[in-house]
Each structure stands twice: as structure tokens, then as C-alpha cells.
Design brief:
The chain is of the alpha/beta class. The chain is built from 16 helices and 23 strands. It has three domains: 196 residues, 3-Layer(aba) Sandwich (Rossmann fold), CATH 3.40.50; 146 residues, Glycogen Phosphorylase B (Rossmann fold), CATH 3.40.50; 124 residues, Sandwich (Immunoglobulin-like).
Length: 489
């Protein structure tokens, strides 16, 4: 008998990165730019696919020799279809890609989540098919792991704390003497910032330049930030200040956490420098007093903080570790390897973000309400968990209990419903609209019917035992609801 030889580690040469926006300067956009550059530095063939593409991000990518295109352009048969790694920052793009590009092939899938706040940036779908889940902060991980572990008990995870490429932060730094010139960087600029700008100049002769979507956007590089004596910001830009030995004061839409110091740095890293660890709500006068009083101490800390930052906020070591974590080369996967029911649901939900990404049409709690009861052979049954336990009080002699949901079936499947109760009840089932057009549009899903169903049960008296409703599909039963009638008035 031949011994089983271990598979060789996956070789990452062709990389597809998915990010919903690649237009203005923002957190996920700049992370995607640096990530793509790092893969390019490794001699990889890198393609970035986005839904919204524009300047200046388009030119930054193309100037570095990175292919970037919209989802519509990538949906063409002429676009490349075979990748060693797909790095997905926003799941709606992957959801639409696997439904429209049925010829897509990939070996490894990384899902990177920038925040647990926006659904578009959270981890919701395709968790079982994900080879590595990457969080941008430990606090993000704590929030989302509760949901992720319901899908995969022991997922492979890691943290990527918004680091920078080493080449972008190297070089000599200038010594700081006094606070004369400060810079504020954030796309979330409040009225307090402009008042702070005015008061700093009037009372302390300190100029404050403000950059962001409200004023003027600018690519903040080491060369730019080196011109200033103080950085006021939140998020990823704070790392750059630390790496360039500039005192960093955290202030933004959530409040202020004050200066980053050797004592509080780890706690602030845990929350990605968002300004809501302490969230002090200072007046402008209090802000100026805190900034000026503690500036000298902040200057004295910059060397120690830079050393810590160099060990935590350089991207290349993280990328090396992630590629090692991807494991063995198990060959290519295709959309047909995914649950077609999950593909279909993700596609429907992704349409909401395409229309208005920053509205919250689906919160995570509502996604979890559409629970997978059982999945076998690429058939998935979804139902509204709200009907799982109910105690009902009726005010008439006869009332109707309604159980609604969605049933997705592969071609050839059939189903019916069964009521298990101590009394005989009149039951009717209404099947919803069939969707033959779905099968024509997405042939690999093999959908013959996507039905909303409604079960109507007439109740005439109170019962001590719950009424149990089952769906029978291919001789398998799935419990839908247990309804306990406690009183009839």
C-alpha cells in the first residue's frame, strides 16, 4: 500500500482582491491599495475588482502595474477566471461574482472584515468555504466571532491591524521642538474640528490643516505627515504618525481618547484607534488644554512608540504569515462547490447594497433570523424563526395561525407540510410565485422553484400540547414551528 504523501503548500501567484469602493481616500480603499502593492512586490499578478471605481484610486493602482476594473467589466468572458487566492473585503462583491461568473476558479478564499458595524463590512456568508478570516482589530473579532462560531466551530482566524508597507514608512525622521503646525485627518469632520482650528490659531498661534471628505482629500504619506508637529486623527492614519515619530492625539466623531502613550497604546490598538475606548466628550477649550499641557510628554514618548509600531504595523510579515496559514494546495474550487441556496440568498441581499450601501437594509440579527434548518445535497430550507415559539391568545371562536417562509429546492424535488397535534385542524398551504427566470439567468443554481409558502391552521380551542408543523421534502422532515395555544376568549 502506498503511503499518503502530504500535499504541497499553496503557491500564491495570481491574486483577486474585492473591495466595494475604489474611488476616494478611505480606510478600506487605502488598505486595499497597500495590500495590492504588497502582493505586487511579491511578483504576483494582481487584479482588483470593485463596484464603484474612480479617481484618484484608479490611477494609484494602475501606476503600480495593478489591474483594476469594475464588477461589470470583470463579468465579461474575456476577463481572467483562474486565481490562487481571492481576498474579499466586502461580501456582496463575492456574492455577485460567484453568481455571474460561473467559470470562476480559485484555490483559497480570505474574507477580511474592517468593521462589525456596517453589514457590508461584516462576515455573513460563505464562512464554511473561507480558508482564513481576517479582522482589522481584536474588538472586531470579539463581536463577530459569536456569529462565525455558529457556522464553523473552529475557524482559522488572524488579525491585520491596518498596517503600512515598510517601504512607505522608512527614512529619517525630523526632531520635534515645539507645537507650531498640526494636521487633522478624517472623513468624519465635525463642527468641533473647525472651532478647534480657529481657537488653536487665535490663542496659541498653532495652525491646524484639515483634510477629509468634508474639506480636501489628500493621500497622506510619510512625506506629508513629516511636515507637522502633531497628528490629530482616528483609525489607520494613527499608525502612520507613530511610525514617523509624530505625537498622535485621537479625536473624532466618537469623542477623544487623548494622546497615544506607552501606557494606553495596546488598549487603543484593540479598538483600532477609533476614539471610543474612553470617548471623552471634551469642550474645545478642554481639548486645547489637554493637547498643549501633555504635548511635551507625548514628544518624549515617540521613540518608544515607534519601536512598538514597527513590530505591529508593517504589512509584509502579516502577509507572509497569512500565506503560510492557507495550508495545502487542494486544487481549484468553483461556484458549483458552494451552497446554491446561500449563493441565491447572498445575491438577493447584495442587491440592496448595490442600490444604497450605507443604508442598513439587513442587520446581522435579521440575517440570523433566516436560519438554515437543514442542508443536504445543495438543497437549503429557510424559514422565519419568529414562528418557532409562540403563545397566542385568540378573541374569536376560530382564528388562523399563519407560518410563512421561503423554500429553495433543486430541480425535481417536491415537498408538502404535515401538522402534528392532538386535534384535527383545517390546514391549507399556499405556494408562492415560481421563478423560472432565475434558472435561466443562473443555470448553475439549478433552481426550479423559489417559493414563498404560507401555512394556514384554523384553531377552535385551546390545547395543552403544541401544534408542530413539519415540512416533508424527499422523505426528510424538517420542523418549522411549534405553536402553543394557551387561551381562547
Amino acid at each position: 500500500m502506498k503511503s499518503l504523501r502530504p500535499r504541497k503548500p499553496v503557491s500564491v501567484n495570481r491574486v483577486l482582491i474585492l473591495n466595494f469602493y475604489m474611488k476616494q481616500y478611505g480606510g478600506s480603499e487605502l488598505m486595499t491599495l497597500d495590500l495590492a502593492k504588497c502582493f505586487k512586490d511579491r511578483k504576483c499578478d494582481v487584479t482588483v475588482v470593485t463596484y464603484i471605481l474612480g479617481e484618484p484610486m484608479k490611477s494609484h493602482l494602475e501606476d503600480y502595474g495593478i489591474t483594476v476594473c469594475t464588477l461589470n467589466e470583470f463579468s465579461s468572458d474575456k476577463a481572467p477566471n483562474q486565481f490562487d487566492l481571492i481576498w474579499s473585503t466586502h461580501w456582496p462583491l463575492f456574492a455577485r461574482l460567484v453568481n455571474y461568473r460561473t467559470d470562476l476558479q480559485w484555490k483559497k478564499l480570505v474574507q477580511c472584515t474592517m468593521s462589525p458595524v456596517l453589514d457590508i463590512e461584516s462576515i455573513i456568508f460563505f464562512i464554511k468555504e473561507t480558508d482564513l478570516v481576517v479582522f482589522q482589530a481584536a474588538s472586531n473579532k470579539r463581536v463577530q466571532m459569536r456569529y462565525i462560531e455558529t457556522q464553523v466551530p473552529d475557524p482559522k482566524i488572524n488579525i491585520l491591524p491596518n498596517p503600512y508597507r515598510l517601504a512607505d514608512v522608512q527614512g529619517a525622521t525630523r526632531p520635534l521642538k515645539s507645537l507650531k503646525k498640526a494636521i487633522f485627518i478624517s472623513n468624519y469632520t465635525t463642527s468641533h474640528v473647525f472651532e478647534l482650528q480657529s481657537q488653536l490659531l487665535e490663542k496659541h498661534n498653532v495652525t491646524l490643516d484639515i483634510f477629509g471628505s468634508v474639506t480636501e482629500q489628500k493621500l497622506i504619506t510619510a512625506e506629508v505627515i513629516d511636515e507637522y508637529d502633531l497628528l490629530i486623527s482616528i483609525g489607520r492614519t494613527c499608525q502612520l504618525g507613530l511610525l514617523r515619530k509624530i505625537p498622535v492625539y485621537i479625536f473624532g466623531r466618537f469623542g477623544t481618547d487623548g494622546y497615544i502613550t506607552a501606557d494606553n497604546m495596546e488598549e487603543l490598538v484593540d479598538r483600532n484607534f477609533t476614539g471610543n475606548v474612553y470617548g471623552f466628550q471634551y469642550s474645545v477649550d478642554e481639548l486645547i488644554a489637554d493637547i498643549s499641557t501633555n504635548y511635551e510628554r507625548a514628544v518624549n514618548d515617540v521613540d518608544d512608540l515607534c519601536e512598538k509600531a514597527l513590530s505591529q504595523f508593517i504589512m509584509e510579515p502579516y502577509l507572509d504569515a497569512f500565506i503560510d496559514d492557507l495550508g495545502a494546495d487542494n486544487g481549484y474550487r468553483t461556484p458549483e462547490d458552494l451552497s446554491w441556496g446561500e449563493c441565491y440568498l447572498a445575491l438577493k441581499m447584495s442587491a440592496k447594497f448595490v442600490n444604497s450601501p450605507y443604508l442598513y437594509p439587513y442587520r446581522k440579527i435579521e440575517v440570523s433570523r433566516m436560519e438554515v434548518v437543514k442542508e443536504t445535497h445543495h438543497r437549503i430550507l429557510l424559514f422565519n424563526v419568529d414562528t418557532e415559539k409562540k403563545e397566542l391568545v385568540y378573541q374569536k371562536d376560530t382564528q388562523v395561525v399563519s407560518v410563512t417562509g421561503v423554500l429553495l429546492l433543486k430541480e425535481g424535488d417536491s415537498f408538502h407540510f404535515r401538522i402534528n397535534s392532538p386535534k384535527e385542524y383545517q390546514v391549507s398551504v399556499t405556494k408562492g410565485i415560481k421563478s423560472p427566470g432565475v434558472k435561466n439567468k443562473f443555470p448553475h443554481l439549478a433552481i426550479s422553484e423559489s417559493s414563498r409558502f404560507e401555512i394556514l391552521v384554523k384553531i377552535e380551542t385551546a390545547v395543552s400540547e403544541p401544534i408542530e408543523i413539519f415540512c416533508v421534502a424527499d422523505d426528510e422532515e424538517f420542523p418549522l414551528a411549534g405553536i402553543h395555544i394557551i387561551k381562547v376568549i
